[in-house]
Amino acid sequence: MPHYKIAIVGAGPSGYFAAQALQNSVTENLTFEIDMIERLPTPWGLVRSGVAPDHPKIKTVAKVFEKIAAEPGFRLFGNVELGKDISLADLTKKYDAVVMATGSSIGKKLGIPGEDLANSISAADFVPWYNGHPDFKDFKVDLTGKVAVVIGAGNVAMDCGRMLAVNPDELDETDTADHALEALHKSNIRKVFITGRRGAEFAAFTAPELRDLPKLEHTDVYISETAVALAYKNAEANGEIDKHLASNLEAMKAVTETPKKGHERSLEFLFSHTPKEILGKDKVEAIVYSTPEGDVTIPCDLVITGIGYVAESIDGVNFEKGKISNVDGRVEGSNIYAVGWAKRGPSGVIGTNKSDAAEVMQLLISDLKEAKNDGDITNLLKPDHKIVDQAYWVRINDAEVAAGEARGKPRVKAVSIPDLLRLGQP
Length: 426
Ligand code: NAP
Prior knowledge:
By secondary structure, the chain is α/β, with parallel strands linked by helices. The protein has helices spanning 13-24, 46-49, 62-70, 88-94, 123-130, 155-165, 178-186, 207-212, 225-237, 243-257, 340-344, 352-367, 390-406, 417-423; strands at 3-9, 31-37, 74-77, 97-100, 106-107, 120-122, 147-151, 191-195, 219-223, 265-270, 274-279, 286-291, 294-299, 302-305, 309-310, 319-320, 323-324, 336-338.
C-alpha cells in the first residue's frame, strides 16, 4: 500500500487545511504521514498573530486545526526554522512532497516621500505587535500624538484603525498582548482616519467587519453620506451591483445613519484619497493626499500603512510578484507545492484556504509516484534540537489559557521564544 510522507512548512490556516485535505483523501490504498514544520513554538499562524483580538469568533477555527493535528499520522515540528535548522533541498529529498504554507509577511511600501519618517509604520509590524508575535515584542509604537491615519481600504487597515480607536477597556477581556494593552491604555490617540485611494465602491473591506462598526461602544464612526451615494451611483453606472458590493454599501450606509454620540474617540473613513507625501521634520507631522478636489493635507502623528503584503524569500524556491512562482500551486520541475498566501498572494479570508488547499492537494496526489523510503526530518535535525511537538504545544496552550482564565481573558500570550519554551517544558 503506498504510504507517502508529506512535509508542510508553516502551521497557519493554509497549512492545516492542506493537511486536512490529505487526511480526507486517505483510502485503503493511499495513506500519508504528515510532518508540519513551524518556525515558532506556536502554531495557528495568522489565527494567533493576525486576527484582531476583539474578533475572538474568527479564532474558533483553531479548534478545527487541533482536530487535524490529533489525527493519526500527523506530527508537529515547532521551533524548527527552514533555512536555518533544515534546508528546503533536504526536505525535498526526504519527503514525497513539500507543501509551502509560508504565507506573506512583509508589508508593501507606498513608495512616496516621507514614508521612512519616524512614526510611519507598517501594519505588518503593528498587527503582530499587538498580537504578541515574538519577533515584534520589542517593536515601539509611539501613541503620544492625537491623530492616526491608516492607509488602505482593506480588512487589515480596518483592524489597525479599530484597535487604535476603541476604548482600551474594551480590549481588557481579549488576548491582546500585555505590552500592547499597556501601551493602548496610555495612548493619546483619539482621532483615527482610514483612507482608501479609490471610491467606496472599490473598498476591499468585507461586510461583516463594516457591520460591526456601529456596535462600537465608545467610538463615533464616520463615513460621509456623499461618498456612499457616489459609490452607489458609480457602481450602478458600471452595471448591476453584485451581492458582495450591495452588502458592503448597505453596511456603509448603516454607518452613515448611526447617530453620533459625541464620544471623544472617532474613526473616520475617507475615500478617493491617494497618498502623495508624508510630511515632517524628524517624525510624521502630516500626510498629503491627492483627491478629486485637489490636494488635501491632514495633520497627524502616526501613519500606518495597510496596503497588502509580499512574501519573504526562501532559499530553494523562486518568487514572483511577492509569491512563490507556481502554476495552480505546483512549483514546476519539483516536488514542491504552494498553498495559501504563499501561492496566491495575500487575499481571501481564512476559509478561502480550505477549498484552495484542497485543489492543490488533489494535484499533489495526482503527481505522486513511487513512495520514498529515506527517513524524515528527524534525520535532518541535530539530536539536541528542541522540537515543539503537539504535546509540547498543548502544554503551552493550556498554560496560556489557564493564565487567561485567572484574568477573565481567553489566554495570556507568552511573547518571547524562551518564555514559550519554558511554558511547555515537560
Ligand atoms: P486587501 O484586502 O487587498 O486591501 C488592500 C488595500 O490597500 C486596498 O484597499 C488597496 O486599494 C489598498 N492599496 C494597495 N496599494 C495601495 C497604494 N499604493 N496606495 C494606497 N492604497 C493601496 O489587503 P489586506 O487588508 O492586507 O487584507 C489581506 C487579506 O486578509 C484580505 O483578503 C482580507 O479580507 C483578509 N483579512 C480578513 C480579515 C477578516 O475577515 N476579519 C481581517 C484581516 C484581513 P486598491 O483596491 O485601490 O488597490
